[in-house]
Structure formats: C-alpha cells, structure tokens
C-alpha cells in the first residue's frame, strides 16, 4: 500500500501536486542567483593567458618543399610545415596563474608605521620585545604567492624588507627576527634570512649559546631544529619575550602564517640554542637597579588557538 503523501493525498492531490511543483520552481529560482554569484566569484587569473587547448583545427599544414609531386619527388613529412593558426598559446591555468603579485606589497613607509607604537628605550632586549609585539597578527599574503616545487610560498613584509624581489617569497622566520632587530635599532648583531648561517655568524660574533648551558632571557633569539632531525640543525628562529620557571614565551613568524605568540616548556627538546644580544654601549639604562627605570614590558594580547603545549 502506498503511503499517503502530498502527492496522492485525497481529492486535492492535483492541487497539492501543483503547489509542490510551484514550490520546487520557486526554490530553484531562489537558488539561481546564488549559483551565478559563485560563478562570478570564480578566481581571477593574473597570468595574462586564456585557457586554451589546441585541437586539430588550430593547425595548418603548409607545403614548403616548393615542388610538385612527380616521378622524382614524393612529398614526405619534411615537405610540410605545421603552423598554429588559432592565435592562442596552449595554456592551462595552474595555481601560479591565480597569484596576484601586486597584492599586499609593502614599502618602508608601511614598515616604519607598523612599528610606530613601540617605545624604544635603548635597552636592546627590551626594545626587541617591544618591536616584536607590534608585529603580532601580521599574516603572510593570501593572494600574492609563488609556487615552488608544488608548494605555495607567500609574500611577506619580512622577506621583502630583507631582500626585495628576491626574498619576498622566502621562508621568513629569520626575516621576521632580523626585521625586529633592525627596527629596534640594535647594532653589532649580524642579521640573516637563513637559520643555519645565522647560528654560524652569531657564533662567530660570540653571541650564540647552546641551549644545554644557558638560561634564556627575554630579548634572546631562540633557535629550533626539526623534531626528527638527528643533526639538530637550526631550522627555525623566534624571539624570547618572557621566561618563567617552567616555560618560555616567544613571538615567532612562519611557524604559522601569522606572527604569533607561542609557549614552550623550559626543556623543549627542539630548542637548540639562543642568540644573545650584546649590551647597547650607548644606553645609560643598562644593568641592575637602573633597569627598573625602564617602562614595564607591555603584555601582548596572545593570539588565539596557536599555543603549543605549555
Ligand atoms: Zn589552438
Ligand atoms: Zn615535397
Ligand atoms: Zn594561466
């Protein structure tokens, strides 16, 4: 037996059926604008090409031997030249075609204004943390990227600041820290865009300490290796912004797409060492009791959801 539904219910079956059909039509009509909006919102491309795949009609074979077939000449493939007549280049959009290389590009004016809320004191440790905090929330570009070996590398202000066009899509953890050192007006500390080379140059300058025999302080650079790297080579760097008995607070770029705060246990195994700032020779407020004259470190608003296990 059929179940009674709107489609066959009693005398008014036909009427209900009509209403149902009407309803379905209305629903489809209502859905249409949404669909065309989605089509309109299809991502624009920036490659300058239209997608085109050559078909047989795109080619023309022209005889170029200049001879007619006779007893002494039979046309071979070499007698013909194939030319493309469609006027298009064969092109299929790839990820790279959707990258807008002009999006989110910054300049020195923007960089200076991004750190303008920092209050520099001349105490380099303090000032490094102060500058790093102004950068919290900066996010690598959504639309401006390049594709290297299938991986998206996004534009960042730190790569661009460090090395312009050549570096704007580079890994940017060290670029971020270098940027902070620069805008904190810290001298006599080598800058770098590459963690391994940086550990080396800091070591050469007498400014590197192994994690095993050093107690970190706010204002240190903190170097990490990959968890599974038996060589424990430096692969990431950030800035120590706070140290408690059991934990280290850092600000880092390129651990995620956003400059953010992270927390680690003091015995975090991927920490390999620290870059230790020299004292500012021109700073009157440096040690001991004088430190208390410095403004207290501003507490940053922690970025949500990106805390590692404390
Ligand atoms: Zn074609
Ligand atoms: Zn021929
Ligand atoms: Zn394309």
Question: Can you tell me about this structure?
Answer:
The protein has 310 residues and is α+β, with helices and mostly antiparallel strands. It has two domains: 46-65 and 76-93, no CATH class; 102-293, endopeptidase fold (from Nostoc punctiforme), CATH 3.90.1720. It contains six helices and ten strands, in the order αββααββαααββββββ. It has helices at residues 13-40, 108-114, 124-134, 157-163, 173-183, 195-204; strands at residues 59-63, 80-84, 145-148, 151-154, 208-210, 221-225, 234-243, 247-252, 260-265, 271-275. Strands 5-10-6-7-8-9 form a six-stranded antiparallel sheet. Helix 3 packs across helix 5. The longest helix has 28 residues, at 13-40. The protein is elongated, with a radius of gyration of 32 Å. One zinc ion (ZN) is lined by residues 45, 47, 49, 91, 93, 97.
Short recap of the structure:
This protein is an alpha+beta fold. Helices cover 24% and strands 17% of the residues.
Main beta-sheet strand count, sense and barrel state:
6 strands, antiparallel
Question: What is the tally of helical segments?
Answer: 6
Number of strands: 10
Structural class: alpha+beta
Can you list the ligands bound to this structure?
Answer: zinc ion
In CATH terms, what is the architecture of the largest domain?
Answer: Alpha-Beta Complex
* Structural domain tally: 2
Mean pLDDT: 84
Which H/E pattern describes the elements? HEEHHEEHHHEEEEEE
Structural shape: elongated
| Share of residues in strands | 15-25%
Oligomeric state: single chain
User: What gyration radius follows from the Cα positions, in whole Å?
Assistant: 32 Å
Distance between termini?
65 Å
The CATH topology label of the largest domain is: endopeptidase fold (from Nostoc punctiforme)
CATH superfamily of the largest domain: endopeptidase domain like (from Nostoc punctiforme)
Helicity range: 10-25%
- Strand order, largest beta sheet: 5-10-6-7-8-9
CATH level-1 class of the largest domain: Alpha Beta
Poorly predicted regions are 1-11, 25-40, 287-310
């Amino acid at each position: 037996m059929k179940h009674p539904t709107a489609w066959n219910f009693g005398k008014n079956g036909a009427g209900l059926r009509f209403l149902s059909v009407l309803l379905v039509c209305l629903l489809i009509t209502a859905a249409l604008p949404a669909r065309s909006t989605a089509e309109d919102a299809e991502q624009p491309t920036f490659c300058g090409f239209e997608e085109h795949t050559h078909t047989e009609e795109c080619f023309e074979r022209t005889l170029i031997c200049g001879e007619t077939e006779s007893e002494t000449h039979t046309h071979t493939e070499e007698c013909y030249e194939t030319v493309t007549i469609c006027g298009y280049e064969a092109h299929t959009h790839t990820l790279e075609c959707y990258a807008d290389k002009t999006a989110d590009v910054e300049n020195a004016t923007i960089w200076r204004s991004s750190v303008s809320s920092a209050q520099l004191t001349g105490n380099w440790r303090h000032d490094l943390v102060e500058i790093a905090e102004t950068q919290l929330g900066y996010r690598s570009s959504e639309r401006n990227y390049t594709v290297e070996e299938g991986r998206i590398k996004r534009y960042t202000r730190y790569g661009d600041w460090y090395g312009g066009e050549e570096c704007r899509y580079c890994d940017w953890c060290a670029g971020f820290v270098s940027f902070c050192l620069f805008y904190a007006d810290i001298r006599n500390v080598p800058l770098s865009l590459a963690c391994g080379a940086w550990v080396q140059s800091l070591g050469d300058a007498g400014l590197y300490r192994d994690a095993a025999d050093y107690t970190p302080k706010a204002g240190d650079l903190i170097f990490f290796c990959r968890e599974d790297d038996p060589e424990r080579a430096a692969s990431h760097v950030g800035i120590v912004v706070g140290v408690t008995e059991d934990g280290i607070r850092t600000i880092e770029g390129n651990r995620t797409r956003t400059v953010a705060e992270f927390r680690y246990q003091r015995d975090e195994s991927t920490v390999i060492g620290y870059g230790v700032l020299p004292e500012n020779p021109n700073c009157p407020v440096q040690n001991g009791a004088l430190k208390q004259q410095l403004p207290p470190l501003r507490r940053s608003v922690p970025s949500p959801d990106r805390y590692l296990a404390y």
